[in-house]
Amino acid sequence: MYSIVSTAVVCGIRSVPVQVEADVCDGMPVFEMVGILSAEVKESRERVKAAIRNSGIRLSPKKITVNFYPADIRKTGTGFDLPVALAVLAAYGRISEAFLEEIFFAGEIGLNGELRPAAGILPMVLAAREAGKHTVCIPRGNVKEAEMVKGITILPGDSLNQVLTLVEEFHRKPEKFSPTHNMEEVSEEAKETPWDFSGLHGQKVLKRACEIAAAGRHNMLMTGPPGAGKTMAAKAVSTILPPLTEEEGLELAGIYSVSGLFDQREGKFYTRPFRSPHHTISTAGLAGGGAVPKPGELSLSHKGVLFLDELTEFRREVLEVLRQPLEEGVIRLVRRSGAYQFPADIMLIGAMNPCNCGYYPDRNKCRCSSAVLERHFSKLSRPFLDRMDLTVEVKRPRLPEIVEGRPEETSASVQKRVREVQEIQRKRFSDSGILYNSRIPVSHIKEFCPLEPEGEKLLQESFERLNLSVRGYYRTLRVARTIADMEHAGRISRLHIMESLLYRSADRKEWEQE
Predict the structure, then answer these.
(1) CB 106 within 8 A of CB 124
(2) Cα–Cα distance between 444 and 448 in angstroms, integer?
(3) In DSSP terms, which residues pair with 332 in a beta bridge?
(4) CATH assignment of 197-513?
């Protein structure tokens, strides 16, 4: 006898529909599985046999052949256990194939028949809906993921026997089941966190730079002595960014689902991610990787903030991986199993000490020579520094600023201004597909960044005097565009260019002037 069950496989962060076929016939008892299978999928054969037996279901010895198609896609993950078990049982006649026809199945099965959560359920359910399947049967532990998808009826199971009962009941009385959609409400104001913007005392220049960076989604580099507030500022930036849209939240939830980290997004659907990996992270950990690539920190930070503290401690080859994603907003990986593309539209914030001891340019404490300073900064390549839109020198706050306890502006109030500026950008770019000032392509610079004559003259003079690269030139213009938007100015003035140039200190080597 023959049966077929619908499921899906995760490829990168998207899912591809897969059909699981089972054929049972007389012959030497054997259980064969074909269709370019990974090790964990091949092992499902033993899990399924034990689960069926321990669920009290006895099957006569037969020749069992299970095929997965399309056959040209490598099948990975443990979510095939349930579809394989049901396809085999249907081929044996233990459940009607008609009961399974309109339902999508995915889930891992334990040896005792218990259903266990599988990674990547959210993109699988989205693929099922696109394929016309509006009913899904999954482990109860994956229900919160599936509930994010509109128009889907969920049959949550705890065991193989319960799934068989649920499927039969759904077929006989479908009116008892209805689509569920569970989505948290959008928070209109920034939630209180330990790193609210009001925790930054003094630091006017730093707070101004943070607001500019958030408003235009610009990358930012902070240099300063230990304890000056660089980490606090980076965390505070994540609280002044507007909430994610529903589309962005669903995309990000899918990335975490594929990574097996969905629980980290529970209750944070509209909150932009803040990731801060340790400096010992590998290239694959940052960019994603593996025989079948999984998302790395770049993709887990999608639409949010990736904070790299102690930037000069990261291996240079790890940092160089960031160059292409910072320009394009995606990262592309090519493996033998195929080409993968992961989203990486991030706001990068880096922090570093100004020298090995951390106290430069305070010569009362710092004894680093010019050669030591140059070696310290040479850990970061010029192309990498060119991709940092703003560079801010963070000074240690004075004691009176800390102990006086003057009320500081909260994240909620700063976020309102950031939203206003981003709304200006949305209206300006409404027909161009551009999202933020930091993403203005060179071909549209003249159109979207009109300069007043004095501002254009200053920028031309600074290009030669500061030895700006072409990339640095355009990034200066993009930052100036954001500053002008914050003042609701249509054209970029000389003052806007001057402030933008203040944040290009990475283009200057102060130690050479000593």
Answers:
(1) yes
(2) 6
(3) 341
(4) 3.40.50.300
Contact (Cβ atoms closer than 8 angstroms) between residue 476 and residue 500: yes
Is 315 buried (19+), middle (13-18) or exposed (0-12) by CB count in 10 A?
middle
Which among 438, 426, 440 has a CA at the least distance from the CA of 217?
A: 438
Going by C-alpha positions, the residue among 141, 139, 167, 160 that lies closest to residue 49 is 160
Dig out the tokens for 88 from the structure.
Answer: 């085999």
Neighbours of 478 (CB within 10 A): 21
Ordered DSSP codes for 336-356: TTEEEEEE---EEEEEE-SSS
Tokens 């509930």 found at: 147
Q: In the numeric block, which tokens belong to residue 219?
A: 């990358």
Q: What is the pLDDT of residues 279-306, one digit of tens each?
A: 999 999 999 987 778 899 999 999 999 9
pLDDT at 513: 42
Q: How far apart are CA 271 and CA 508, in angstroms?
A: 36
Q: Which residue stretches of 378-441 are H helix? A: 382-386, 399-403, 411-428
What is the location of CATH 3.40.50.300 in the chain? 197-513
- Nearest alpha carbon to residue 82 among 99, 106, 102: 106
Whether omega before 29 lies within 30 degrees of 0, making that bond cis, reads no
How far is 496 from 500, CA to CA, in rounded Å?
A: 6
pLDDT at 320: 93
Question: According to CATH, where is 3.30.230.10 located in the chain?
Answer: 2-176
Please state which CATH number belongs to domain 2-176: 3.30.230.10
Encode pLDDT of 266-283 as tens digits: 888 899 999 999 999 999
- Residue 132 — left, alpha, or beta (φ > 0 → left; ψ -120 to 50 → alpha)? left
Tokens of 334: 């090519």
Q: Which residues have C-beta within 8 Å of that of residue 387, sequence separation ≥ 6?
A: 219, 322, 323, 326, 327, 348, 471, 475
Which residues is 76 bridged to in the sheet? none
Q: Which two tokens mark 506?
A: 């990475």
Predicted TM-score (pTM) of the model is 0.88
